[in-house]
């Protein structure tokens, strides 16, 4: 689209200021000016000769119009001046006319341009913008249902996805200040370059809002950290998938859930952030179930598992424990299986709760097995209050749990497996720890009623040969 | 209706879908013949049935209730579950 030299005015009938200055435009024409008037809705209030239909808003978009009326002067093919709204003296001076708009008010502000209305911006960007996604575009034939197409293309986890149109992806990319073509890392199992734009497409599929996108990006960065061992976690025959726990101000900014049903369904941010991570792994990395993902059972976790921590407690938060300030938003990724409930409705002292939690934790993997999976313990508010009232810090609670989880070596050995029976611990009389140092992580979340806590075991391959939790700051 | 979607994958595979491998021999092939309920279609299919059987294929016969509508899901599933390939007439 090229604009001819002279005066260009963009107007809409829905704007009182545009109606007001319609006679002024005629005056400009009569004064011998070359004037083109682009209208965004209707033209029946205009009397100049050169009236151009801009209901598609291409001219408005290309001229970057935010307010109507806007008068733009062009000379030599370049913009040479711009007047926004109506200001008589300014118009007269700029256009070199002694008389113009006599009898009109001195000044009137304009109205918002239709081209910057909500939802329209991205449509115009996709249609007319120079933004060229460095990703493949797939044209759907007429009569093909877009959601069915997503299923048939293998892009989903079995649930419907939001079709990733250019407009939706552009909108998602506005959730971050990072460049669309920035490479976050190489994603297993097929070792594909994972760009911000590819993650944005999968965040659209998952149903994320743009404001969730920074959390998704930080989750991907955590997953790409070699310490997390995403490739192994994906490929394992074990149950686990990635679990994201969010800390910091962004939790409330995007309305995440850390209260009732925290590990369940119903909160859009919790549900879609975890799903976006999993869909990115599936689609960009190529990690599909029963192909590279060889999990014998899988678990509901693998649809996506993300929640926020309740930070309104006396305990240090997860991200503080991992070295970040409380006012920094962060995501920590763990490997995780489904939650196991621990009930204790009797204990009013921390020691009793320690006994109950340790009793549940002992059964993870196998009751005769130690030093295998790590575990995250989500302490519910009613259990948490018992520790808080007694003045127990998180560190003291973890220490007491570790002590309660020292198991006599000779009681280990997984009696059914002669090979394991010969392991380094069997037959030893000294006590060994059920969980490695640092292998028990305590966080706070859950609904106000219920004397329960949730135990979330991780991938049986932990530490250097397997996975370690990874924390990443969430950058907007 | 959406017309353009952005590819969420690692783009290692072509967009086009390829047909499954063609059968190279009729011998031992489980072959479906789908009668779409057009008049005298059965006469034509009876003859095909005999020729395919002669060539060593095991022929399964199916029939749509009406040519005017797509086959019912249960019939499609039955065909998929039973045969290696199916021959369907499009019209008379």
Proportion of helical residues of chain A: 25-40%
- Approximately what portion of the residues of chain A adopt beta-strand conformation? 15-25%
- Overall form of chain B: extended
Count every beta strand of chain A, where a strand is a DSSP E run of 2 or more residues.
22
Average pLDDT confidence of chain B is 88
- Average predicted confidence as pLDDT of chain A: 93
| Residues in helices of chain B, as a percent range | 25-40%
Oligomer: heterodimer
**Radius of gyration computed on alpha carbons of chain B:** 17 Å
The dominant shape of chain A is: elongated
Radius of gyration of chain A: 31 Å
Reported for the largest beta sheet of chain B, the result is: 3 strands, parallel
What is the count of DSSP helices of chain A, taking H or I runs of 4+ residues?
A: 16
State the major sheet of chain A: 5 strands, mixed
Order of helices and strands of chain B: EEHEHE
Describe this structure in words.
- The complex is a heterodimer of chains A (476) and B (92).
- Chain A is α+β, with helices and mostly antiparallel strands.
- Chain A folds into three domains: 6-128, 3-Layer(aba) Sandwich (Glutaredoxin), CATH 3.40.30; 143-309, no CATH class; 338-457.
- Helices cover 30% and strands 20% of the residues of chain A.
- In chain A, strands 3-2-1-5-6 form a five-stranded mixed sheet, with helices on one face.
- By secondary structure, chain B is of the alpha/beta class.
- Chain B has a domain at 30-88.
- Chain B is built from two helices and four strands.
- Chain B has helices at 41-54, 73-82; strands spanning 4-6, 30-35, 58-63, 85-88.
- In chain B, strands 3-2-4 form a three-stranded parallel sheet, sandwiched between helices.
- In chain B, strand 2 (30-35), helix 1 and strand 3 form a beta-alpha-beta unit.
- Chain B is extended.
- The model of chain B has no long low-confidence stretch (mean pLDDT 88).
- The A-B interface holds A 133, 135-140, 142-146, 149-150, 155, 163-166, 169, 187, 190, 192, 197-198, 201-202, 205, 279, 283-286 and B 1-12, 15.
């Amino acid at each position: 689209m090229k604009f001819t030299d002279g005066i260009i005015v963009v107007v809409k009938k829905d704007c009182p200021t545009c109606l007001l200055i319609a006679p002024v435009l005629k005056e400009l024409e009569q004064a011998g000016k070359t004037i083109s008037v682009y209208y965004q809705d209707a033209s029946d209030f205009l009397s100049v000769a050169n009236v151009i239909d801009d209901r598609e808003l291409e001219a408005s978009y290309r001229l970057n119009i935010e307010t109507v009326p806007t008068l733009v002067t062009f000379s030599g093919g370049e913009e040479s001046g711009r007047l926004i709204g109506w200001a008589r003296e300014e118009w007269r001076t700029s256009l070199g006319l002694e008389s113009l708009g006599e009898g009109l008010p001195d000044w009137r502000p304009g109205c918002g341009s239709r081209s910057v209305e909500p939802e329209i911006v991205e449509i115009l960007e996709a249609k007319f913008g120079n933004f060229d996604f460095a990703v493949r575009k797939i044209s759907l034939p007429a009569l093909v249902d877009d959601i069915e197409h997503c299923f048939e293309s293998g892009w989903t986890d079995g649930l419907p996805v939001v079709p990733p149109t250019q407009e939706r992806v552009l909108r998602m990319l506005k959730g971050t200040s990072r460049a669309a073509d920035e490479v976050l890392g190489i994603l297993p199992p097929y070792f594909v370059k994972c760009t911000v734009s590819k993650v944005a497409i999968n965040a659209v599929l998952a149903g994320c809002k743009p404001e969730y996108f920074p959390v998704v990006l930080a989750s991907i960065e955590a997953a790409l950290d070699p310490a997390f061992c995403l490739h192994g976690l994906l490929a394992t025959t074990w149950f686990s998938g990635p679990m994201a726990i969010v800390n910091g101000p962004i939790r409330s900014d995007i309305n995440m859930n850390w209260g009732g049903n925290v590990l369940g369904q119903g909160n859009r941010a919790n549900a879609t952030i975890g799903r976006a991570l999993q869909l990115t792994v599936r689609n960009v990395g190529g990690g599909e179930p029963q192909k590279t993902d060889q999990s014998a059972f899988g678990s509901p976790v693998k649809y996506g598992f993300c929640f926020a921590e309740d930070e309104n407690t006396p305990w240090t938060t997860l991200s503080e424990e991992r070295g970040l300030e409380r006012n920094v938003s962060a995501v920590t990724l763990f490997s995780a299986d489904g939650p196991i409930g621990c009930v204790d409705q009797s204990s009013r002292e921390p020691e009793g709760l320690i006994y109950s939690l340790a009793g549940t934790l002992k059964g993870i993997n196998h009751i005769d097995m130690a030093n295998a999976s790590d575990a995250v313990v989500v302490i519910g508010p009613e259990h948490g209050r018992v520790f808080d009232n007694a003045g127990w810090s998180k560190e003291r609670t973890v220490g007491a749990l570790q002590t309660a989880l020292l198991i006599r070596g000779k009681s280990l050995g997984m009696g059914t497996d002669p090979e394991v029976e010969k392991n380094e611990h069997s037959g030893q009389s000294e006590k060994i720890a059920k969980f490695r140092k640092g292998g028990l992580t305590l966080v706070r979340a859950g609904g106000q009623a219920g004397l329960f806590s949730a135990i979330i075991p991780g991938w049986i391959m932990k530490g250097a040969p397997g996975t370690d939790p990874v924390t990443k700051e969430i950058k907007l | 209706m959406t017309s353009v979607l952005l590819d969420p994958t690692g783009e290692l595979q072509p967009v086009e879908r390829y047909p499954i491998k063609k059968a190279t021999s009729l011998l031992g092939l489980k072959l479906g013949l789908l009668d779409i309920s057009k008049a005298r279609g059965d006469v034509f299919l009876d003859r095909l049935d005999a020729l395919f059987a002669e060539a060593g294929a095991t022929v399964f016969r199916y029939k749509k209730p009406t040519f005017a509508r797509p086959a019912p899901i249960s019939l499609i599933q039955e065909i998929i579950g039973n045969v290696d390939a199916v021959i369907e007439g499009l019209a008379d």
